[in-house]
C-alpha cells in the first residue's frame, strides 16, 4: 500500500501530516489504533470506511490495534449527539460485541490484528486513577466541543459521564502506546484529546487521521441503524445489491471512493464535470457496478454475478413499465403505504419508499401520495405507481 493512498484516499484530514508522512517513509512499524464501542449488534458499511483506512495501514506492514470499547460503551460517546446517548449495561455491551470481530474480519485481517478490550485497564483502576486523569484537564477545555456547546445553547443537559468520555478514549491511546489513531470526522475532538492525554502522561503525541462519514440510503443522514438507512455487513447479497441500487445518484462517487478498491482513474467519469460533458452518462449502470463490487467484498464473486439478474427479475427491467399483481396478506382495509411499497416490491426498503414519497414519485389511483406515514385503503383493482413501476391489487 503506497503512502499517497494511506494519506489521501478516503481521508478528510491528517494531523500532523508532515510528521506522519515522515514516519511512514522511515520504515518504522507504527501502532495504529481504532476504537469501536459496541453500541449496536452489528456493523454496517458506514463502519467500513474507517476499517478500510485501518486496512491500508495493515497492508503497508504496520501493527493495527482494534480496541473494542466494552467499558466506554457503558458511558456512551457524545460525539455528534444532540441528546444523551442511552447508557448500556455490561450485559448489553457484551451481547452487542459478539459479532464485531467476525464482521470486522471481512475488512481487516483479524489474525494479524492486536485486539484489545478497554475493560482490561479501566476495570482494575480505582478512584485514585480517575482523580489523577481528570486533574490534568479543565472543564473549560472539555466543554469547548461543538456538540456540547449546541446542547447547552438549546437548554439540553451534558452529563458528567459524557464530559469524561473523551478523556477515557484518550487514555486508550496511552494504554496501547498508539502512534496513530484513525476515526470519523465526528471523532476529531476525541482524537485530539488523545494527543493531549498522551502528552500529560509523558508520551509522544499520536498522529490523527480522520475519514468522512457516509450518508445512508436516504442520502441525507449519516448511515445509522437508528435511522434505518444502513446496509449491514451480514445482510444477504440480494439485500446488499438491492439497497445499493436504491441510493441517490449523488452518492455513487462517494460510495465508490470510500467503500471499494476501484481505482480513482477508473472513477474519472464520475467527476461532476465529466458527467455534464457525457450526455450518455448512465447512473443505473454505475450503481450496478457499485453493487457488484460491494457484494464481491462481503460475499463472493459468484454471489455478485447472481445479484444483478436476481434484482432485475425481482424489480424488472429499466425499459418500459413494470407491472406486478399484489395479493393482500389480509382482508381489504387500510395498510401503511411504506409496507405496501416494500411488500409489493416497488421499493427495496422502507427508507427508499420514504424517499420516493418525499420526491413525489408515488401515486395511488392517479393521486400523488405526500405523507410517508399515511395508511391507504386497498381494494381489488387499486393501482399504485412508483415511477415506471406499478402494482395492481388482486
UniProtKB/TrEMBL annotation:
GO biological process assignments: tyrosyl-tRNA aminoacylation
Class of the enzyme per the UniProt entry, highest EC level: ligase
Entry keyword Methyltransferase: no
E.C. number: 6.1.1.1
Pfam families assigned to the protein according to its UniProt record, in alphabetical order: SYY_C-terminal, tRNA-synt_1b
One GO molecular-function entry: ATP binding
Keyword terms of this UniProt record: Aminoacyl-tRNA synthetase, ATP-binding, Ligase, Nucleotide-binding, Protein biosynthesis, RNA-binding
Alphabetized CDD domains for the sequence: S4, TyrRS_core
InterPro entries the UniProt entry points to: aa-tRNA-synth_I_CS, aa-tRNA-synth_Ic, Rossmann-like_a/b/a_fold, S4_RNA-bd_sf, SYY-like_C, Tyr-tRNA-ligase, Tyr-tRNA-ligase_bac-type
Chain ranges of the Tyrosine--tRNA ligase SYY-like C-terminal domain: 334-379
Highest taxon, organism lineage: Bacteria
Keyword Cell cycle appears in the UniProt entry: no
GO cellular component: cytosol
Family: Belongs to the class-I aminoacyl-tRNA synthetase family.
PANTHER family assigned to the protein according to its UniProt record, in alphabetical order: TYROSINE--TRNA LIGASE (PTHR11766:SF1), TYROSYL-TRNA SYNTHETASE (PTHR11766)
Protein name: Tyrosine--tRNA ligase
Organism, as annotated: Candidatus Doudnabacteria bacterium RIFCSPHIGHO2_01_FULL_46_14
Amino acid at each position: 500500500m503506497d503512502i499517497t493512498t494511506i494519506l489521501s484516499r478516503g481521508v478528510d484530514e491528517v494531523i500532523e501530516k508532515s510528521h506522519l508522512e515522515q514516519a511512514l517513509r522511515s520504515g518504522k512499524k507504527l501502532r495504529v489504533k481504532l476504537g469501536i464501542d459496541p453500541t449496536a449488534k452489528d456493523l454496517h458499511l458506514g463502519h467500513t470506511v474507517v476499517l478500510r483506512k485501518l486496512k491500508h495501514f495493515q497492508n503497508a506492514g504496520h501493527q493495527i490495534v482494534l480496541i473494542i470499547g466494552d467499558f466506554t460503551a457503558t458511558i456512551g460517546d457524545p460525539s455528534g449527539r444532540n441528546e444523551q446517548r442511552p447508557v448500556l449495561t455490561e450485559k448489553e455491551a457484551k451481547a452487542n460485541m459478539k459479532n464485531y470481530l467476525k464482521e470486522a474480519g471481512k475488512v481487516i485481517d483479524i489474525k494479524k490484528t492486536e485486539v484489545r478490550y478497554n475493560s482490561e485497564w479501566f476495570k482494575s483502576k480505582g478512584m485514585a486513577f480517575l482523580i489523577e486523569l481528570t486533574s490534568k484537564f479543565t472543564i473549560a477545555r472539555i466543554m469547548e466541543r461543538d456538540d456540547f456547546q449546541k446542547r447547552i445553547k438549546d437548554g439540553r443537559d451534558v452529563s458528567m459521564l459524557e464530559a469524561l468520555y473523551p478523556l477515557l478514549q484518550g487514555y486508550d491511546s496511552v494504554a496501547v502506546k498508539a502512534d496513530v489513531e484513525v476515526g470519523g470526522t465526528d471523532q476529531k475532538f476525541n482524537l485530539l484529546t488523545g494527543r493531549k492525554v498522551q502528552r500529560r502522561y509523558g508520551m509522544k503525541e499520536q498522529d490523527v487521521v480522520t475519514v468522512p462519514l457516509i450518508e445512508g440510503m436516504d442520502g441525507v443522514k449519516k448511515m445509522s441503524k437508528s435511522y434505518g438507512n444502513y446496509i449491514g455487513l451480514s445482510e444477504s447479497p440480494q439485500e446488499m445489491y438491492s439497497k445499493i441500487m436504491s441510493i441517490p445518484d449523488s452518492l455513487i462517487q462517494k460510495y465508490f471512493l470510500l467503500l471499494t478498491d476501484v481505482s480513482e482513474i477508473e472513477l474519472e467519469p464520475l467527476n461532476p464535470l465529466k458527467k455534464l460533458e457525457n450526455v450518455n452518462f448512465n447512473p443505473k449502470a454505475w450503481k450496478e457496478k457499485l453493487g457488484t463490487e460491494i457484494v464481491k467484498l462481503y460475499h463472493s464473486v459468484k454471489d455478485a454475478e447472481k445479484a444483478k439478474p436476481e434484482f432485475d427479475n425481482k424489480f424488472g427491467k429499466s425499459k418500459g413499465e413494470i407491472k406486478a399483481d399484489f395479493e393482500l396478506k389480509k382482508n381489504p382495509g387500510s395498510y401503511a403505504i411504506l409496507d405496501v411499497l416494500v411488500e409489493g416490491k416497488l421499493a427495496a426498503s422502507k427508507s427508499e419508499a420514504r424517499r420516493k414519497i418525499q420526491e413525489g414519485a408515488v401515486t395511488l389511483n392517479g393521486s400523488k401520495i405526500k405523507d410517508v406515514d399515511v395508511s391507504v385503503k386497498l381494494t381489488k383493482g387499486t393501482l399504485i405507481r412508483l415511477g415506471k413501476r406499478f402494482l395492481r391489487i388482486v
